[in-house]
What does this fold into?
Amino acid sequence: MGAAALLAQVAMTGAVLHAPDLPAAVADLLAPDLARSVTAPTVGTDPLALEARSVRQRRAAMRGHATGFALPDLTAAAFGAAGPPSVSVVLTTRRPDLLTSILPVLLGQSYPELEIVLGLHGCDLPDPVRALLVDSGRPFEVVPVPASTGFGAALGVATGRARGAW
It folds into this structure.
């Protein structure tokens, strides 16, 4: 049990792990995605490939072993709670023309419980951006903020509308 806990903790730091001969007793205690990633063949020394492996391992370790992510899934059957904590992404802008390049990145995130709070600081929501949000299937809220409001206060208004636990 100690070896599995140590591997999960190290994976959460972002260190790249490789254990091709991981004992079955240890692998059985790891989240399946983490065990697969740790035992997968090496990716060489390419920095981008190493970073991608690090991110995959960190995500698998967090989803499978971090209390805030793992506990809701572990208790779902007993208590009816399910899923990871909700997360709000707050984006406030005066430049709506940049949203068509920024929003696809946010909407492409794989986190399942993600809402987008879009603060429009003295500007209107362009139709293509509205279409992106509506078609995304993600919960979102558009928060108009007067241009006369300072940027910090505009961020505060948008943040105050966020419903996510994180």
Remarks:
- DSSP finds eight helices and three strands in the chain.
- The mean pLDDT is 87.
- The CA atoms of residues 12 and 58 lie 5 Å apart.
- The radius of gyration is 20 Å.
